[in-house]
Design brief:
Blueprint (H helix, E strand, L loop, with lengths): L2 H13 L2 H8 L3 H15 L4 E3 L4 E3 L1 H29 L3 E8 L5 H12 L3 E8 L1 H9 L5 E5 L7 E15 L19 E4 L6 H12 L6 E4 L3 H9 L5 E4 H5 L7 E4 L6 E9 L6 H9 L4
Helix pairs in contact: 1-2, 1-4
């Protein structure tokens, strides 16, 4: 058995059909089936159960799948280590960025590439929980995420805390509640975070604390669309300060929500027990708050 066969088996286990696995591997189905048969003969036990609709891992196959993931990951890390030791910093650095992306990243990328022009980047955008999963699976090495978040198994570098702002088209007026200085209550609020995630939860807690009851609460993960809708008077929103700095050209009215406990923070994370490439380790030094 070799690493090529391990990758074949991983594809079959994850795709759940020989046909889909063959497409993922860019190979014909019969040779893939033959490779699986050879592996089962070598181990002396069935690794998958074949049904008309899909394949299922046997107990032995499940054990092999998890061991194969570890071996393939260790091999990739060893290749990266040898390459970096011999050639210095080069290759592709894979980074994830929260949907409410941070303006620190652009300058860090510019400064880093000036010093290491042979490094290229693959940047993925998504919600913080999605980025954590990508780091766990080894799809990316680093991710900028928003707290609060369950970070068990991760190492992290805190970057910054910042306040929230209420954003509207200028027509919202002071509400009836004593603490509703900007007309949050009664407005159609659209939040820039998926329900149940950290930023969403923080905003809901703030509304409850001051007994502010919007007429409705919606969500929109597309920040440009969100600001277009605010500009046209369709909705209002509450967003972190960074979002305002990255979208300065919209004709909207903004109001700082001055509660020292109502803050959002973000940092960069990586997996504790996985080898961190020299590229990623070096990049961490460039991602700092001035």
């Amino acid at each position: 058995m070799d690493f090529r066969q391990l990758n074949y088996f991983i594809a079959v286990a994850e795709e759940k059909t020989i046909t889909a696995a063959a497409e993922r591997l860019h190979m014909a189905q019969p040779p893939l089936s033959q490779q699986l048969k050879q592996m089962e003969e070598e181990f002396g036990t069935p690794l998958i159960e074949r049904t008309p609709r899909q394949t299922r891992l046997t107990a032995a196959g499940t054990a092999l799948y998890y061991e194969a993931l570890k071996l393939v990951e260790q091999f990739a890390e060893s290749k990266q280590l040898v390459r970096e030791t011999g050639d210095g910093l080069k290759g592709q650095l894979k980074i994830g960025v929260n949907t409410l992306s941070d303006s620190l990243l652009a300058q860090a990328l510019i400064d880093f590439q000036k010093d290491f022009p042979s490094v290229t980047f693959a940047i993925h955008q998504g919600e913080s929980q999605q980025l954590c999963e990508l780091v766990r699976k080894g799809k990316i090495e680093l991710a900028i995420v928003r707290y609060p978040l369950d970070l068990k198994g991760f190492s992290m570098k805190f970057l910054k805390s910042e306040p929230f702002y209420f954003v509207c088209d200028g027509s919202a007026k002071k509400g009836p509640a004593p603490d509703d200085f900007h007309g949050i209550a009664g407005s159609k609020l659209m939040l820039p975070s998926t329900e149940g995630l950290g930023v969403y939860h923080s905003i809901i807690e703030y509304l409850a604390k001051y007994q502010l009851n919007p007429s409705s609460i919606s969500t929109c993960s597309d920040i440009r669309l969100l600001f277009n809708l605010i500009e046209q008077g369709f909705c209002t929103s509450i967003v972190p300060e960074t979002v305002l700095k990255m979208n300065p050209h919209y004709q909207v009215e903004t109001h700082l929500l001055e509660d020292p406990l109502f803050q959002t923070s973000f940092g960069i994370i990586w997996l504790e027990e996985r080898y961190l490439s020299k590229m990623a380790t070096s990049f961490l030094d460039y991602l700092t708050v001035n």
